[in-house]
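FW: tagging you since you asked about this chain on Friday. Here's the raw sequence from the shared folder, copied in full. Didn't touch anything.
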Amino acid sequence: MDPSKIAFRMSLVVAAILALLPFHALFTTWAGSNFGHLDAWRIWKDILLVSMVPPALWLIWRTPKLKKWLAHSWTTRLFGLYISLHVILGAWALGRHNVNSTALIYALIINLRFIAFFILCLVIASHSDFLRRNWQKLLLAPAAAVIAFGLVQKFLLPYDFLRHFGYGKNTIPAYQTVDSNLDYRRLQSTLRGANPLGAYLILVISALSVYLRQNRKLFGLLGLGALVVLFYTYSRSAEIGVAIALGLLVWWGIGKKISGRQIIGLLAVLALLAGSGLYTFRNSQSVQDTLFHTSDSSAAPRSSNAERLQSMENGIRDVIHQPLGRGPGTAGPASFRNNNQPPRIAENYFLQIGQEVGVIGMALFIAINLLVAKELWVRRTDQLAKILLASLVAITFVNLLSHAWTDDTLAYLWWGLAGIAVTPILKWEAQAR
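HL: got it, structure written out here
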């Protein structure tokens, strides 16, 4: 069997996953509401991932140099430790009745799937250049559809249009608002919410900015549409994230043409202007609603800012009092399925990991992010690596205020592309042994 042919076929499956991910929430919600078994529909990409594990292991076995690279890479070593910690603490938590089996399985899937997909894409891209040659199309073509639908959703469709696709109380809310105000309806397009859409657009806008020179009309128009959709998500963390990512890309693009002192001065001026603007218009109704997500005429019983702050304080308290964690499935989205304990949402992905697998697990995850960032930095002359590095910094900021990595679309898409980007450049031949 020719490893390159097998890798090419696997590349097509991965390409299909990457292209369909932005429509995952829309399709699975519609299918689940019409045919039942919503969870079964939602794990379609996880099933495909598991099905590709055996051939991926075979490719590693047939490639001694790749196997050696994986064995000596601290990134894969930490992956192994992180996975082992989840399994051990998961078994412990199940035995102590901290978590039920449903929540545990769900937590293991959403916490570990992007790691498996990262390694899978790395192995496949080591044998076939299909994904590396076509990643732009796989990212930007679906993104164009997401942006177009978002614009139509904002300017043409009824606010609850998505109820026709099964959105509602028992699936995904058909619409979201700022401060319970229908005048500020938040766009979610084909993703599962406004914040996930905003986090997804960080990656998309970063890519569009890098390739703007290639086709100013096409990418410029698409980028403008993306910024409009981003604004109407009213996701403050995503908007700041986009500013961070674009700022880093501009900085790296300028290189040594501008000194660090000049950059600091420019940032200080921009911060002063932004602060002055916020202070001047602090009593404006629209500013209060869109930037602060609360106002003097609020219809909500409690500010979302106060709720988020309280959730973070609870998360910090949990990590301090239980430094070893309570087990996977006891915090984050999976905890809603856990009838053994009340759900815990820390509004911070890193705190969620700390609540589940303790300080050790949180340290391992942070170290994994740093090592992947290092791999991307080494390859920063490559456009994909540069885009991913800038977006990683921005998405990390978003994860300090939400649970961005628990979103199927963003987790699979970013970590899959990262696996393609950090594929080791090895001069080996896949020879039969």
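FW: The chain is about 70% helix and 0% strand.
HL: agreed, and The chain has one domain: 3-421.
FW: great, closing this out.
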